Amino acid sequence: MRKVLVLEDESSIRSFIVINLERAGYEVIEAETGEEALEKLAANPDTRAALLDIMLPGIDGIEVCRRIRLSDPHIGIIMLSARSQEMDKVTGLMTGADDYITKPFSPAELTARVDALLRRMGDAPATGAQEPGGELSQPPFRLNLTNRTLEKNGQRVRLTQVEYAIVKLFMENRGKALSREEILDTVWGHGYFGEPKIVDVNVRRLRIKLEDDAQEPKHILTVWGFGYKWNVE
Ligand code: CA
């Protein structure tokens, strides 16, 4: 069964999330503090995704996200934020979260987000077809489709699953201007509840990882008022 960790200090919200995820077929591990979440993740390495509340006693959700990413680039991370925490959302995404949900949210939105996250991560349904393997090579980059890894000049670049999916889309559409909506639809899936801004935050993070100078990008170019274009010599 797919295992998901829920970190939330307010017990009523935590129960709401746990009940709905269990109803949707997930095995749920609960944590009330950041410290407890990190311990439980270490004890459950097969956990596929973590939902992290931001405002917590002790270490906050953003710090928990940062610490998880130090050891695990592959687990899916969704931040849970209140409407007033707009900046925290961006900080959380820059720290390595894949998505965020604004409280309050409905059970349908919650499970749709978690399902979509796991789908993006390549958790094919039992009957699903395997993605074709091989690689996409555009010097200095080489994307390995079997291992879902990226190298720049032969050096591994550590990507989250969402970043990997964006780079793959870029490399498959070299030189073509892609709209934010097109990137959102392809990477996050149709019916995604979030905002196109999440694309910009992920691109900012990717530029820091891929560009020689993130302020003067040579590979991920901005197409003003539209989206982005992948440009490789
Ligand atoms: Ca809280």
Descriptive notes:
With 233 residues, this protein is α/β, with parallel strands linked by helices. It folds into 2 domains: 3-120, Response regulator (Rossmann fold); 135-230, Orthogonal Bundle (Arc Repressor Mutant, subunit A). 40% of the residues lie in helices and 24% in strands. It is built from 8 helices and 12 strands. It has helices at 11-23, 34-43, 61-71, 86-95, 107-120, 161-172, 180-188, 197-210, and strands at residues 3-7, 27-31, 47-53, 76-82, 99-103, 135-138, 141-144, 149-152, 155-157, 177-179, 220-223, 227-230. The chain has a 5-stranded parallel beta sheet, sandwiched between helices. The longest helix has 14 residues, at 107-120. The radius of gyration is 18 Å and the shape is globular. The N and C termini lie far apart (45 Å). Residues 124-130 have low confidence and may be disordered. The chain binds calcium ion.
